[in-house]
Design goal:
Elements: H1 6-17, H2 28-37, H3 41-54, H4 59-72, H5 75-88, H6 93-107
Helix pairs in contact: 1-4, 1-6, 2-3, 3-4, 4-5, 5-6
Length: 114
């Protein structure tokens, strides 16, 4: 089956980052944003994991990591990261939207790679 469309994931990802990421790439979050924009998903995941080590209470960090994990096909890890983000900020509309879109894709089977 087809993997999630990159455009959908990127849109959800960049919408969620609006209030969450600092513009400079000198910090892990900014570096993760830069790497993701350039399609360097492994690097983006490393940066967001580092950001979460520094701030384990960051809902945005978990959301951003979840988007990358989903893009990489690590669906179980992505689900756990989305759920962690929701536990930390259950009313965040971007996180809620990303998670619901993720769940719909999984239910339709579009999140399964051959």
């Amino acid at each position: 089956m087809k993997s999630p469309r990159p455009g959908v994931l990127l849109l959800a990802f960049f919408l969620a980052l609006g209030a969450c990421a600092r513009p400079m790439a000198t910090d892990p979050v900014g570096a993760g944003v830069e790497a993701a924009r350039e399609g360097r998903w492994d690097e983006a995941a490393r940066h967001w994991r580092l950001a979460l080590e520094q701030d384990p209470g960051s809902a945005a960090g978990y959301n951003n990591l979840a988007v990358v994990l989903e893009r990489q096909g690590a669906y179980d890890e992505a689900r756990r990261a989305y759920e962690a983000a929701l536990r930390l900020d259950p009313e965040n509309p971007a996180i809620k939207g990303n998670y619901e879109a993720f769940r719909r894709r999984m239910e339709k089977g579009r999140g399964r790679r051959p």
